[in-house]
Amino acid sequence: MVSDNAIATQDQQYGDNKVDNRTEKEKAIDAWLPITSSRNAKWWYSAFHNVTAMVGAGVLSLPYAMSELGWGPGVAVLIISWVVTLYTLWQMVEMHEMVPGKRFDRYHELGQHAFGEKLGLYIVVPQQLIVEVGVNIVYMVTGGKSLKKFHDVVCDKNCKDIKLTYFIMIFASVHFVLSHLPNLNSISGVSLAAAVMSLSYSTIAWSASLNKGVQPDVQYGYKAKSTIGTVFNFFSALGDVAFAYAGHNVVLEIQATIPSTPEKPSKGPMWKGVVVAYIVVAICYFPVALIGYYIFGNGVSDNILISLNKPTWLIAMANLFVVVHVIGSYQIYAMPVFDMIETVLVKKLNFAPSFTLRFITRNIYVAFTMFIGICFPFFGGLLGFFGGFAFAPTTYFLPCIMWLSIYKPKKWSLSWITNWICIAFGVSLMVLSPIGGLRSIIVQAKTYKFFS
Question: Which helix (H) or strand (E) holds 292?
Fold first, then answer.
């Protein structure tokens, strides 16, 4: 069932003269599970996996977030988020192999090391699942909406109107096939295509906006008529920004695919990839957010491509690029979920590792995310709600709490102060944005029909 090469690759992680106490059965299981089965990734895999994980559909809602935050707070939140999340990502890369001869291949394994076996699981797993399953559901909706937009733009009123539900089902059909790729390295081609697409549609979004020129009736004031509405919208926009910077949930899993020896630890190539990814993130995020808001003001849609209708061929292409990108993103976020499900089935419930087991569980998962996506396609509100509720902790401050718990930096030292500032910023995001997100879901739900 499992090749000797895969088990040999597994043994690399124990190359620090440590005794590998695993039984043959445990080695075989580790060589079958998606996160630990392949450790031959290059540094550039890390770059495009990180770009694919981070530069998601969230970038298209940034101009809308800017319109609810305003110029000053909007630019500040974007820049602070970029700096804080780069810092917490560096911490996670550093912590991956801080115990000699051991690798924390999964986010919850690091959590267990920091907080204890049981507490670590209870803290990390629910949040990680909310993020990954939440992203997969939102991407089902995004993929379906972008396919529908492509269809509507190309047809230009000459075709019969097709329900969004059917487009979500078309988008899901791709995942019923792709989800059977065994591990992260096997989806590197899909991920590379997705990373290229994210750069392409971001560039189309801001360049087509510039080409359109500032709208004659543009306004930069807050859209909501009441102060309460403005405040709630502001909170919701914070969640949109948190969602846009949410790649941390898969970073340890990505690093687990990179080979590592005591002389050449995996953090070197991984960090190289992260830096490249973050430069791409800046190139995508800042122009889209600032130019989109500058051109359309507070009249911008919650997906910038919907505000742009001309030139037709370019907008059709951009929507198709979004579809390809979201296909890759869905897979990157689904892989750790598959790993968790398969680990529980094989290690706890003693199922035999097999193709059939993988085939059934992964198809059920794709069907589940498709069904929820069809039921609740409130794109903007969902982003705000999930963004704060689960993205802020796992991205902005959980790595800092782990760092303080493990390394115990001296009180009032630079490291101690930096971590507490990040924690304060992250906690405020976590508390405020779900409030705004939930309110916008309730407001939109008044006019919403199920299975539209």
Answer: helix 267-296
Half-sphere exposure of 390 (CA within 13 A, CB side): 18
Which residue bears the tokens 């939109």? 444
> What pTM was estimated for this model as a whole?
0.86
Q: Which pair of tokens denotes residue 450?
A: 């199920």
Q: Contact at 8 Å (CB) between 312 and 319?
A: no
Are the CB atoms for 380 and 439 separated by under 8 Å?
no
Q: How long a stretch of residues is the chain? A: 452
| E-strand stretches of 72-202 | none
Write out the DSSP string of 51-69.
Answer: HHHHSSGGGGGHHHHHHHH
Find out whether 253 and 138 touch, Cβ atoms under 8 Å: no
As a whole number of angstroms, the longest Cα–Cα distance in the chain is: 71
**Cα distance between residue 34 and residue 346, in whole Å:** 12
* Nearest one of 19, 26, 344 to 7, comparing CA atoms: 26
pLDDT digit string, tens, across residues 163-206: 888 999 999 999 999 998 888 788 888 888 988 988 888 888 88
- Yes or no: say if 13 and 103 are a contact pair by the CB < 8 Å rule: yes
- Write down the residue that tokens 């993103």 correspond to: 329
Rounded to 5 degrees, φ, ψ at 276 are -60, -45
Count of other CB atoms within 10 angstroms of residue 354? 12
Q: Which residues are CB-neighbours of 177 under 8 A, at least 6 positions away?
A: none
